[in-house]
Specification:
39% of the residues lie in helices and 14% in strands. The chain is an alpha/beta fold and 286 residues long. Belongs to the aldo/keto reductase family.
């Protein structure tokens, strides 16, 4: 394995260090595909892998990390609590299932995947217990808005150390980012490349030509300069390498503003206040 790691670590509010660039494994098939992708990423110096129980590939994630030969403590692993597992106070059992599938005795970060109304606060209480017991080094939320964060804050206790949301040049939500930064909550992007739907944008390509970088590299660098951590997903080794090569240039203020101006509120996934109907229509939940 390569000795150099991808630069750009950040520190969460509890003092835990976390890489600012990681590999997302959503929709990667368990087994050979997810294992080969993770091994390629670790070879390129990645040290953050983001999975979830809903992805159905936690076993492959654990296998890949063991096959890499890299000590477990050197790799930051995230998983998430799925919607169905918030029923009947099942949070602890769901967490233990994820640990068992991964083959680990702790997680670096555990997130509420979606804020199920009337249930995510109870789930958060259990996650605080897991954190206090040392079974997870940091806890946070995903697909949440300011009112979800405020409801958690009003309950008191341990606060989210990270929020993972859809984020790309078409969906920035700067007010939410500012809110999180003011409260010491690290913002992290899923789908930072908009599932590839924005890579042909002329503004991004022109900026890329200026720095001799691809549109994808420009987007990821833009996110990092905004203080947002990124989880680009790819199963191709060359793309995995390319997505990590974003620390040898810096976008100008003017280029940052040009990219900011691309926002139009477009989502590739569900809105955090409408996801239950979204997943029912897709047949994901009953």
């Amino acid at each position: 394995m390569r000795s150099e790691t991808v630069p750009g670590n950040i520190t969460l509010s509890n003092g835990l260090k976390m890489p600012s660039v990681g590999l997302g494994v959503y929709k990667m098939k368990d087994g050979r595909e997810v294992i080969s992708s993770i091994l390629a990423a670790l070879e390129e110096g990645y040290r953050l892998i983001d999975t979830a129980s809903f992805y159905n590939n936690e076993e492959g994630v654990g296998d890949a990390i063991r096959q890499s030969g890299i000590p477990r403590e050197e790799i930051f692993v995230t998983s998430k609590l799925w919607i169905d597992d918030m029923r009947s106070d099942n949070t602890r059992q769901a967490f233990e299932r994820s640990l068992e599938k991964l083959g680990f005795d702790y997680l670096d970060l555990y997130l509420i995947h979606w804020p199920v109304p009337g249930k995510y606060i109870d789930a958060w209480q259990t996650m605080q217990e897991l954190y206090a017991e040392g079974k997870v080094k940091a806890i946070g939320v995903s697909n949440c808005l300011e009112h979800h964060l405020e409801e958690i804050r009003e309950e008191g206790g341990v606060q989210p150390m990270l929020i993972q949301n859809e984020f790309h040049p078409r969906l920035i939500q700067q007010d939410l980012i500012d809110h999180c930064q003011n409260r010491g909550i690290q913002y992290q992007a899923w789908s930072p490349l908009m599932r590839g739907k924005i890579l042909d944008n002329e503004v991004l390509k022109e900026i890329g030509q200026k720095y001799q970088k691809t549109a994808a590299q420009v987007i990821l660098r833009w996110a990092i300069q905004k203080g947002v951590c990124v989880l680009p997903k790819s199963v191709h080794k060359e793309r995995i390498r390319e997505n990590s090569q974003i620390f040898d240039f810096k976008l100008s203020a003017g280029d940052m503003e040009s990219i900011n101006s691309l926002e139009n509120g477009t989502r590739t996934g569900a809105h955090p206040d409408e996801f239950m109907d979204y997943f029912r229509k897709k047949g994901v939940i009953g």
